Amino acid sequence: MASTPLHLFPNPFSKPLVTQTLPSPLLLKTISCSLSSSPVSPPSTREEAISQARSCLSSTLQKPLNNPLHVPSPNLKKQRQPRYRVEVPIAADDASSLVSLSADLFSGMPLTKKGSSSTPIFLLLWPSPDLSDLACRSFISDSSVLHSDVGSASDQLLRSADLAAFLAPEASMLEEIRMLSSRLIPKPVVLFNPNWGFEEEKRFGSDLGRFVGSFDVVYSFMGLEVRGMLSRRRGVVFRWARDGVMSGEGWVVMVEAEEGKKKGKMVVVSRFKRRPAIGEVENVLYNLMAANSPVTKSVKLLRDWASNITGKKERL
């Protein structure tokens, strides 16, 4: 009999991130409660997700602002531009939700610039003029944030900013984003909620693939749902580089426990040093679902019963 395929709903890698939704408040509450003694602490609400992303991003950006790179010159060795990536799911795939989330994340970010008493200027680069105009009306009286669409960013605007972020860019804009990032060197740049699936990056080609890969993920929270033959479980793929520390902060896959003392609570089922591919997540979850299926359990019960009689331990 053919096995039932494992599905992820929503698929956090093959769909644009902006279409992902946070798990329900009830589910998120069980996540935080079950991991109170664990260093892995996914958010319990939309506000907490924004707070986590905002905190780790500001800590990460503060370092290059305190220790700015020198402008490249023939006499100086080329230094790596600080590049970071943040992924926070939003509730709806529409312009107002994206702008609202961005305002909560970037507006009034607690940053300081070494040798200056003024607040650093954050340039937000939007994928379209309409989104840029909407953002200008939504970021109320925040003089430390400038707005432009990617296609209209002038040299004067780039020079006036201390750091920049590309918000929900399309894959078709990558070459233009790479050129703008180069013009912003040595200033830090952020890639926020890129509007392509992680698996798509394998098809970007060597140059664009290396460019996208040069952005260090400081925060990523993606909900998923696993459907097996007889059950449905929810989970998350999560990374949080707290305090801007990249080393030692890997990726975790968590799902709801189906039995035992932790039934209904989220538990870590796998850890990765790098972002797991969709195939790796599917393998982890498929093996987990198969191990807990009634068919597999009945086979294990028979094997254990036979072992008690023969004294020989069998393995599946």
Proportion of β residues? Answer: 15-25%
Number of helices, where a helix is a run of at least 4 consecutive DSSP H or I residues = 9
Average pLDDT level: 77
End-to-end gap: 18 Å
**Class from helix and strand fractions:** alpha/beta
Domain DUF1995: 43-283
Pfam families: DUF1995
InterPro entries: DUF1995 (IPR018962)
Organism: Apostasia shenzhenica
Which helices and strands, and how do they pair?
Elements: E1 7-8, H1 25-34, H2 46-66, E2 83-87, H3 95-106, E3 122-126, H4 129-138, E4 145-149, H5 155-160, E5 163-167, H6 174-184, E6 189-192, H7 206-213, E7 216-227, E8 232-240, E9 251-256, E10 266-272, H8 278-291, H9 294-310
Parallel strand pairs: 2-6, 2-7, 3-4, 3-5, 5-6
Antiparallel strand pairs: 1-7, 7-8, 8-9, 9-10
Helix pairs in contact: 2-3, 3-4
Summarize the structure.
This protein has 316 residues and is α/β, with parallel strands linked by helices. Helix content is 34%, strand content 19%. It has one domain (7-296).
Q: Could you please describe the fold and organization of this structure?
A:
With 316 residues, this protein is of the alpha/beta class. It has one domain (7-296). The protein contains 9 helices and 10 strands. Strands 1, 2, 3, 4, 5, 6, 7, 8, 9 and 10 form a 10-stranded mixed β-sheet that branches. A hairpin with a 4-residue loop joins strand 7 and strand 8. Helix 3 packs across helix 4 (129-138). The two termini are 18 Å apart.
